[in-house]
Amino acid sequence: MSKLDGNERWKSKMLMTEHVQQYEQKQGTEGRKMITVEERTMVRDLILLPYLDTMVSKSLKELELSNSILKRAFMLAGQAIQQRIMQDTYQLQKELRQHNIRVLADEQEEFLVYYKIFCRGYQERFGLTRDVMRTEISLRLTRYTAELGAGLKNQHLSS
């Protein structure tokens, strides 16, 4: 809030329209400096995707050592999911960069993982519990698997 807001004396003064527009534009951008709920969700997803990628990589390494007759099918499915994770990570990084948001790892405690969010000149600390991370990763992996299954089903029906 500037000194002029609420000051009745300035209402009668003549202002050039370009100055009024500049003032209103400045007020609008100042209100948008804080991180929105949608941006916070993107940050959370960006934090979780590397963990998910690590889990899929470990599963793929375990599959390589197995003697399952479906080993090849599972490997292809895992690689497709991993490719999708990479695409989503790249897309989130790009969107957050456009919104002028950076995310850096901060510290880890026993049950919490903290990150620093730098958002349009503000800094915020963002924490996730390990239980929430596990749940969100599980949901995300289920979604990727369902998308892969739906793609395979559609491809099978069209052929």
Q: What does this entry look like structurally?
A:
- The chain has 159 residues and is an alpha+beta fold.
- Helices cover 64% and strands 15% of the residues.
- The protein contains four helices and three strands; from the N terminus they run αααβββα.
- It has helices spanning 17-31, 37-65, 71-98, 130-158, and strands at residues 101-108, 112-119, 122-129.
- It has a three-stranded antiparallel β-sheet with strand order 1-2-3.
- Helix 2 (37-65) packs antiparallel against helix 3 and helix 2 crosses helix 4 (130-158).
- The relative contact order is 0.12.
- The model has no long low-confidence stretch (mean pLDDT 86).
Helix proportion: 55-70%
Strands of the widest sheet, in order across it, are: 1-2-3
How large is the share of residues in beta strands? Answer: 15-25%
Q: What's the helix-strand series?
A: HHHEEEH
Approximate shape? extended
Number of helices: 4
Rg: 24 Å
Mean of pLDDT: 86
List the helices and strands and how they pair.
Layout: H1 17-31, H2 37-65, H3 71-98, E1 101-108, E2 112-119, E3 122-129, H4 130-158
Antiparallel strand pairs: 1-2, 2-3
Features:
159 residues, three-stranded antiparallel β-sheet, 3 strands, 64% helix
